[in-house]
Design goal:
By secondary structure, the chain is an alpha+beta fold. It has 2 domains: 3-169, Electron Transport, Fmn-binding Protein, Chain A (Pnp Oxidase, Chain A, Roll), CATH 2.30.110.10; 175-220, Single Sheet (Rubrerythrin, domain 2). The chain contains 4 helices and 11 strands. Helix 2 packs across helix 3 (146-163). It is globular and about 50 Å long. The structure holds flavin mononucleotide.
Length: 220
């Protein structure tokens, strides 16, 4: 089986917003599609490792801000390369709260959804969600696709993440504690379980699943 075939399936790139009960949280998602039109229903897949997934289970509602091809790579780095467990991501961007959910001020569209069903797999949870409301956003242009991300956009995201780590981490929520924690790839969710201590891996070591370097791993 050549798993690269699955990268030929493409989707858009979205900032998902929800709440953990005390603050707005969220992440980048691409695994979203419309699966019914009466009522309008979307399918969303979330990695089980993500804080967003655990919050959706309780909040039962989320927003999607649709990114365009002109979207600032900082947005993808901020929401996709770190966890809301550690950082208040929304404080790093311009956003507005509408009916309790956060939306980017600059996006192609905003969509509000209510979760109606949840199916758990080993790696991911599939949410089916009814569209409660949606509107065209303040930006024009074509949607950014996951194919765009992999073919030319990703390098800019990695660059800005490395350059602006301080800006993003400036809003830390907690301190790292090594005990009982695992090194997890913040891009794809791979959990490092090798015999060599993670800290001792060579600097050119890369994630075996998605290929990003050690700097994208964090203790969770
Ligand atoms: C381009 C891109 C697409 C992604 N697509 C998804 C996705 O569809 N579902 C998902 O759960 N995570 C996806 N991720 C990973 C999450 O955004 C990432 O693990 C994030 O750090 C999770 O943050 P959280 O712990 O605050 O939820 C994607 C990341 C990137 C960069």
């Amino acid at each position: 089986m050549d798993e690269n075939a699955l990268f030929k399936l493409t989707h858009g790139i979205y900032v998902l917003g929800t709440t953990d009960g005390s603050r707005c949280v969220g992440s980048i998602v691409d695994a979203v599609m419309q699966v019914a039109n009466k009522p309008f229903v979307l399918a969303l897949s979330c990695g089980n490792h993500s804080y967003t997934k655990s919050c959706l289970h309780t909040a039962k509602e989320f927003s999607l801000s649709v990114l365009g091809k002109e979207a600032d790579p900082f947005i993808v780095a901020n929401f996709g390369f770190q966890s809301s467990r550690d950082v208040n991501k929304w404080e790093n961007v311009e956003f507005e709260v509408w009916e309790g959910l956060p939306y980017l001020q600059k996006s192609l569209a905003g969509i509000k959804c209510k979760i109606i069903q949840e199916i758990a797999f080993e790696s991911n949870t599939l949410f089916l969600a009814e569209v409660l409301d949606c509107q065209i956003g303040s930006q024009d242009g074509e949607p950014l696709t996951y194919y765009d991300y992999r073919s030319y956009y990703k390098d800019g995201v990695i660059k800005i993440f490395n350059e602006q780590k301080d800006r993003m981490k400036g809003k830390q929520m907690t301190e790292d504690k090594n005990e009982g924690k695992k090194w997890v790839c913040t891009v794809c969710g791979y959990v490092y379980d090798g015999d060599v201590p993670f800290e001792d891996l060579p600097e050119d070591w890369v994630c075996p699943l998605c290929g990003v370097d050690k700097s994208f791993f964090e203790l969770q």
